Amino acid sequence: MRALMMDTPLLISSQLRHGASMYGDQQIVSRTVEGPIHRYTYDDAYKRACRLANALCAYGIDQGDRVGTIAWNGFRHFEIYFAVSGSGAVCHTMNPRLSPGQLTYIINHAGDRLLFIDATFLPLVEAIADRLTAVEAIVVMADATHMPECALANLVCYEDFIGAHAEDYDWPVFDENTASSLCYTSGTTGEPKGVLYSHRSTVLHSLCIALPDVLHLGEHECVMPVVPMFHVNAWGIPYAAAMTGSKLVLPGPKLDGASLYELILAENVTVTAGVPTLWLGLLGHVKETGQDLGSLRRTLIGGAAVPEAMVTVFENDYGVEVRQGWGMTETSPVAALNRLKPTMSDAPEDARLRIKVKQGRSVFGVEMEIRDATGKRLPHDGTAFGELFARGPWIASHYFGNAESAALDWFPTGDIATIDADGYMHITDRAKDLIKSGGEWIGSLELENLATNHPDVQQAAVIAVPHPKWDERPLLLIVARPGTAPARQEILDHIALHVPKWWLPDDVVTVESLPLGATGKVLKTELRHQYRDHRLPGN
Ligand code: ADP
Fold it and tell me: Distance between alpha carbon 389 and the CA centroid of its chain, in Å?
């Protein structure tokens, strides 16, 4: 029997409309790229998002068209999220730390018609502008007085673009499975892959992360996503904040400890989210200055494993609860979250810590399981380990541009994990051949290809080695061509021509040979194990 309830689609436009009508006077505070703090309300944001949606329609952006952004967390980026997706187009956020070559590939693969960029990223875009195949105009997210000098003919000022367009907009109603946003992940070898979120997946994910045991959002909370809006949609926080009326603090480009601290104190931030590396700066700052963390009550840390010391400092020294989260671009990203069960709260500190360093239990909507190499499901006993698989309504079934491939019913994460009887998942290793430094991926394959392009390098392998600040840094191992002895700096200079500076391996070690597996592939797991205590220069 079919139910007799309304079939109202779950749409992103309804989140901001609800935010503006129920919590219209709630504040959104942004640190701008120009420097000063910008402050307005959900009501103001709604009106400006309507102006932008009208402007996009007047320009001729159609449903399904892709609109790119290269920007920090700020109020105009927030307006773009809602205006682009809400009007039926696809908001494609990009990581400015990618190399010019990667950015060009992504913009062209997505077919972005418009780019919205912070003024600081203009040189980056100028350098690749003549290689962009679909981009018609570049909208600089600034007012007329802050427009940078530039020779590009197709440059538009954001404030001129939204101009005198109407402050209301008739948000279209369409199928909730319509694409809303696009985010590329370099999380696998080869070219970056696009993850195409839907209105339905975004709204359901927002409901999930607002829950008390995840971020605990609501009108009485003030949330500061330090995780960038180009990194899996700031883990969904802008959408969930609008929906729940949380005060929203957007920290812009300044992510150093002192700048974050200033915002936490001045705006009474109660909840934050970001990768572990970022919090080292904040904790260092408060320790140095002998301050406390004011109103901050909890922090969601994910993207990389949370060190035990970070948990103890936040919780014991500052009374801030650490909630470790696990996810991927392909999982929207929140899939697992770690909070102690009520029965564990009286356990001795070391027992509690042993749980807290795990990645967490699956949130409602997401199922997780581990499998061995033959695909057999392994027991959830906290000991058996295998590749982690996940499924749920906000987990990718295909990559963008590859819709004809068979839909995945379980997503293979490339992480190796255990799951205990209580459901706590713990990542023990990574099957995918990658390095994650400060929460951002470095592609080992690309570095290896560059290294072997050097005439004196016969074979190369790049592996992750643990690093106290960046979590992991790349180490390059090379086998020299017979009769040559390539110098470390020469190899690094050769690679530096093609990759962002932070991708450069921290060290180069020449070895006699590399361990190979049965299929002739370099055994990275063995190398990672062998070099796990390798001392990188400067450490
Ligand atoms: P995000 O960084 O937002 O989690 P990415 O798609 O860039 O998304 O990276 C996902 C990968 O990051 C995971 O597959 C896993 O390898 C790693 N990762 C994410 N969260 C954690 C965590 N809490 N602990 C360890 N590794 C993590």
Answer: 20
- Residue range 82-102: average pLDDT? 95
Among 235, 208, 133, residue whose Cα is nearest residue 439: 235
Pocket test for ligand 1, best of 275, 277, 326 (most atoms within 8 A of CB): 326
Q: How far is the CA of 195 from the centre of ligand 1 (A)?
A: 15
Kindly report, residue by residue over 271-329, the tens digit of the pLDDT. 999 999 899 999 999 999 999 999 999 999 999 999 999 999 999 999 999 999 999 99
Mutation test residue for ligand 1: of 97, 306, 427, the one with most atoms within 8 Å of CB: 427
**For the purposes of burial, counting CB atoms within 10 Å of the CB of 175, is it exposed (0-12), middle (13-18) or buried (19 or more)?**
exposed
pLDDT in tens, 205-215: 999 999 999 99
- CA 308 to the chain's CA centroid: 22
**Interval 181-213: pLDDT, tens:** 999 987 545 688 999 999 999 999 999 999 999
Shared fold status for 17-24+40-203 and 434-530: no
| Domains in the chain: boundaries | 17-24+40-203, 434-530
Q: Would you state the structure tokens that stand for residue 226, as one six-digit string?
A: 């330090």
Residues involved in catalysis = 185, 330, 436, 441
Position 13 scores a pLDDT of 98
Per CATH, which fold does 17-24+40-203 belong to? Rossmann fold (3.40.50)
> Is there an atom of ligand 1 within 6 Å of 13 CB?
no
Of residues 436, 400, 463, the one with CA closest to residue 193: 400
Tokens of 225: 């996503």
Q: Could you give the angle at the alpha carbon of 347 between the alpha carbons of 344 and 352, nearest 5°?
A: 75
Residue 186 Cα to ligand 1 midpoint, Å, equals 12
Asked whether 185 lines ligand 1 (CB < 6 A), one says: yes
**CB-based burial, 238-251: b 16+ in 10 Å, e otherwise:** bbbbbbbbbbbbbb
Instruction: Answer for the pair 515, 527: CB distance below 8 angstroms, yes or no.
Output: yes
CATH class of this structure's domain 434-530: alpha beta
Helix (H, G, I), strand (E, B) or coil at 192: coil
> What pLDDT shows up at residue 519?
65
How deeply is 89 buried, as exposed, middle or buried, from its count of CB atoms within 10 A (0-12, 13-18, 19+)? Answer: buried
**Sheet with strand 27-31: strands edge to edge:** 37-41, 27-31, 247-250, 222-225, 271-274, 298-301, 321-327, 334-338, 361-362
